[in-house]
Amino acid sequence: MQVRFQPDDVTVPAREGETLLQAGWQAGIYLRQTCGGQGTCAKCRVELLSGELTALQEGAIWEEASGRWALACQTVPASEVEVRVPPRTRLSEDEGAGVLTETDEEEIAAPAPLYLRREVALKAPTLEDATDDLLRLGMALRAEGELTGARLEAVRRLPTVLREHDFQITVDLARRGGGWELAEVSPPGVTEPPFGVAVDIGTTTVAVSLVDLSSGYSLAAAGDYNAQVRLGEDVISRIVFTEESPHGLHDMRRAVLNTVNGLLEKLSARTSIDRNSIRAAAVAGNTTMISLLLGVSPRFLRREPYVPPLTRVPVLAAREVGLRIHPEAQVYCLPSVASYLGADLVSGVLATGLGHSEGVSLLLDVGTNGEMVLGGADWLLGCACSAGPAFEGSGIRSGTRAVPGAIEKVEVAPGGRSVEIGTMGGARPVGICGSGLIEALGSLAEAGVLDRAGKFLPDPDNPRLRRGEDGWEYLLAGAADTAVEEDIVLAQTDLDNLIRAKGAIFAGLRTLLQVADLRPSDIQRVYIAGGFGRFLDLERSIRIGLLPDLPREVFRYVGNSSLRGAKEVLLDRRRWEEAHETADRLTYVELSAGTSFMDEFVSALFLPHTDLELFPSVRLAG
Amino acid sequence: MQVRFQPDDVTVPAREGETLLQAGWQAGIYLRQTCGGQGTCAKCRVELLSGELTALQEGAIWEEASGRWALACQTVPASEVEVRVPPRTRLSEDEGAGVLTETDEEEIAAPAPLYLRREVALKAPTLEDATDDLLRLGMALRAEGELTGARLEAVRRLPTVLREHDFQITVDLARRGGGWELAEVSPPGVTEPPFGVAVDIGTTTVAVSLVDLSSGYSLAAAGDYNAQVRLGEDVISRIVFTEESPHGLHDMRRAVLNTVNGLLEKLSARTSIDRNSIRAAAVAGNTTMISLLLGVSPRFLRREPYVPPLTRVPVLAAREVGLRIHPEAQVYCLPSVASYLGADLVSGVLATGLGHSEGVSLLLDVGTNGEMVLGGADWLLGCACSAGPAFEGSGIRSGTRAVPGAIEKVEVAPGGRSVEIGTMGGARPVGICGSGLIEALGSLAEAGVLDRAGKFLPDPDNPRLRRGEDGWEYLLAGAADTAVEEDIVLAQTDLDNLIRAKGAIFAGLRTLLQVADLRPSDIQRVYIAGGFGRFLDLERSIRIGLLPDLPREVFRYVGNSSLRGAKEVLLDRRRWEEAHETADRLTYVELSAGTSFMDEFVSALFLPHTDLELFPSVRLAG
Fold first, then answer.
1. Burial status of residue B15 (CB atoms within 10 A of its CB: 0-12, 13-18, 19 or more)
2. Using the 8-state DSSP alphabet, how is residue B203 labeled?
3. What is the chain A residue with the closest CA to B133?
4. A195-201 vs A218-225, strand pairing mode
5. Which ranges of chain A have pLDDT less than 50?
6. Which of A196, A459, B113, B551 could form a disulfide with A280 if both were Cys (CB 3.0 to 4.6 A apart)?
7. B573-585 vs B561-571: helix axis angle to the nearest 10?
8. Residue of A156, A305, A314 with shortest CB distance to B150
9. CATH number for the segment(s) B2-91
């Protein structure tokens, strides 16, 4: 059964029972979807130009004025078919280019890396001291720690290199357990340092930083979209994909490996450093991302009682993981705490120094989940609240991820009859992204277009406020002004989703504070992490009740603290141990287990909150 | 250039510069040699039937009444040649079949093996206890010790197998460092135990014992000649081979791997146990044998100051070593002490319990080197004395290894005019082996044919005593009665070699005793180890001054204690630690470093010794 995709004019055979979505993958045509192909997000709709489809669920094929439409994930060709993929539905191959890279060029002083290169002079053996070569080397290296293992290749080279160079040699040591493994033996005078990579695997983007392990310098960094996005936009849809698609887990693993290895190739080309010279990797990411990288099924992560397969990952060889660096390079995956409190947060605690700080600090990473850690040197509490995909631009009618053309700035004039928008990269608008949504919500509330519950106040004189298919909606940009041939609007249902998302995050914070018997004003520092935080308008975020109403100077945007923490681990082995201590002492508060979270959640479904005393600085409009 | 070998009638092309010896290897024709192809042992002589050879050293080609002869290792074809390999020169392919296997069926009680299989029930997770699967497993296994690592394949299976079987599963654990590595995860109810192999790699023979790691039962054992024998008969000739022959180290490694893997295949076939079910191996052997197995050059072992490349071998995977068992099976090589005091002796100390015993014990392994350990629970001293290859039947004109047809019993009638001989397997004599030499020396001394310095007493009336090319020689068997078409004789030079060999061993013992400030009579137990010991006539060995003159009941033949110790390590991880403690506390006494050894050696060049008070029970003839 042939399927022709337009406007690409690409034809592929569809296998028995294969959906249009899956047929598209074969053709290299990736359609949007956030539900893992379950037929619930309705992102994958395509126009049926000719032929017949069989629907796998009711409503998967429908008529509109413009023609016949179908959900690609829920329809199977019943004849030769021709479909058109509208711009909204298409996941652009170019999007990766738009990922911004945070090159954190700050050097880490006095590195004590997980992989060492040392020139060492041994005492030459005598008849009275005929200790074997390997033990002799171990004694010479005592200042570095204990030599507890050795790779066979290195042992094979040791005797000859020692004697060809008068017992002065260069050795490479890789950290393993509490000791060192002899990784390589070379003649003296090696001037090239060993290199390492820190990797942060985000659900949406992946970042890799290449560092010189001897000096601690960051040499280059690169980022890209996680190629898994094609197979599911958020964590849950990806887990569903691994369960539902044949070879789903394998495909997910290959996708992220392709992304990471592509970045490694890019960094290698840019710096002229052979990938084989990269001898260690530290990897951070949320629990699902780490599972998928390792090819470990995360299926039970999303089922009560939300048990991760593993949180402490053994040290693995790059060849086992599939990273294209030196095959024996050790891969240190940072530990995670729970299914939804991952190594990215543990890494962030390291990077911010939160675990050592006096008083109470908060680390907050806002994404599909609001993940946060509260505490300091004495105690650490963490939780994750399901914010839904609103902040990622999903589950929102005109939502989009933070790609060029995403609306990120929204300024609604008082009364709401006019609006100014700004897009990423200044491109023609394609939709509205998470930070734009927060701006819009705050701005609409300030302009008096919404009531305190976030509901549109009917205003027949406002040309931008209209009744759409889902009730009231507010027009941000008309079809003629967009790149997607459709109006970009904010519907009441979108605002409701957004308010639930911000309410969940604030309720999570309140719950942690309650567990610790503290008030918001006890928080002395707030670290906002993640790509999303960079674009967050602080005032608007407080205005809508997403962030607590604290003196503005306590807030600090810390960028990709997950990548930064991984880099610190790579360059300082005490940090590797600290990461494990942090994971051990971080108490995970399971919000679905207690009832106070639900009370807090309901109280937070207002702008900014039911309890206005919590937001003294917020001026209410109207 | 073609070379035709007779009587096989096999023709092979000789590559440029290739010797007849090397051309033979290509044809699968292995010639005797004990010098590593250096042209000094003269074992590889072949008869030149036609064609011309170029000699690489003087005297490598000569004329005899019977025709033209050549040393195969020192001659290169100058034209097409045809050579005959006489029976003496040929290393028979059948010899392996004659290796006796010591199946030590004694079971080791209460095994605490290096590889465990356990069925374990985990507490099912709840929202209040959502600890990850791997940590949860670690907690359930606490009684066994700490779970410090995991193989990726096992982690991948863990979540599913746990949930498909109600959190009751079978796990395999492999010992690594002070903890356990999760090696495999299976459903509950696995009835097959994991299997392991103990391997002893001797210079001459290799023995493998297959054990059930759960019960500790020995299931089967097999032995064979070490295929390295073809490339050099003793340790030194093999080291020379690795240095002189292109790919010599590789060839040596392949040879021993072929032997071990062949035995594994045999054991697998005999027991119907899949080699993949063998999950651990413990390996003992002398320092050179372990080096060659690992592909680590032993070249510096034989050069002053005799430094081994390594004595503590890291735990390796079977795939790295090349053993054809489960590729991830861990290989535990027992530690050695010095270049000539190897893991075989350390293993023997374990097997005999010498390291725990009260009072003073001696473990003695007689081979090319006399290796011995003296001591007990409080202290351990060891040394190795180069006895030369006499006890292996090399360096002796009619010498042979302990193969069928080797003369092992010699009874010389008083006066020496007649002699009775017995051969191994009752076959027609091919030569005289080590134990036969000791019998012969003792018997000749008792019969009054030799003086106290071991020199033949001229006796013109004795038809067996005649002048040969190397001085006096004693006829053991006439050419007509042998399988090698030559007289089997003992020449004065042979006896001199033998006396030097026994003198070196006794001098080593005396030196150790001196270091410990003890007399021979302080020794309470003597363990005689090694294949050689089995055939040793105790009275004759004391008579010639090889063994100390102690009450006969203190001597115990312990068989292949090296294999036995390896098996104990496999089945009891405390023994693995004990092996390292033993290697640590065993003080190696370097005999070439002190002068007292040379004095002792000179005193020991008599039968039995210059100091007759050391041998009160020995009656002197004449």
1. exposed
2. S
3. A309
4. unpaired
5. 93-105, 622
6. A196
7. 130
8. A314
9. 3.10.20.30
- CA–CA dist B607, B618 (Å, integer): 10
Same fold? B115-186, B198-333? no
For domain B343-389+499-614, the CATH superfamily is: ATPase, nucleotide binding domain (3.30.420.40)
Domain positions in chain B are 2-91, 115-186, 198-333, 343-389+499-614, 393-491
Q: Which residues pair with B207 in a beta bridge?
A: B200, B223
How do A523-529 and A380-386 pair as beta strands?
unpaired
Measure B501 CA to nearest chain A CA, in Å: 23
Superfamily of domain A196-333, CATH level 4: Domain of unknown function (DUF4445) (3.30.420.480)
Closest among B211, B203, B204 to B290, alpha carbons compared:
B203
Lookup: tokens for B110:
């209460």
ipTM: 0.85
User: Which has more confidence, B141 or A620?
Assistant: B141
> Which residues in chain B are contacts of A155 at CB distance < 8 A?
294, 296, 309-310, 314
- The token pair at B386 is 């180069």
Provide, as residue numbers in chain A, all residues whose Cβ is less than 8 Å from the Cβ of B133: 300, 307-310
Neighbours of B214 (CB within 10 A): 17
Strand-by-strand arrangement of the B431-432 sheet: B419-423, B406-412, B431-432
- Take residue B287 and report the two structure tokens written for it: 């320092």
Tokens of B39: 């042209």
Q: Residue A293, SS3? A: helix
State whether A155 and B296 contact (CB < 8 Å).
yes
Q: CATH for B198-333?
A: 3.30.420.480
List pLDDT tens digits, range A106-141: 556 668 999 999 999 999 999 889 999 999 999 999
- Architecture in CATH of B115-186: Roll (3.10)
pLDDT in tens, B214-226: 999 889 999 998 9
> What is the nearest CA distance from B287 to chain A, expressed in angstroms?
11
Any residues with CB less than 8 A from the CB of B9 and at least 6 apart, and which? Answer: none
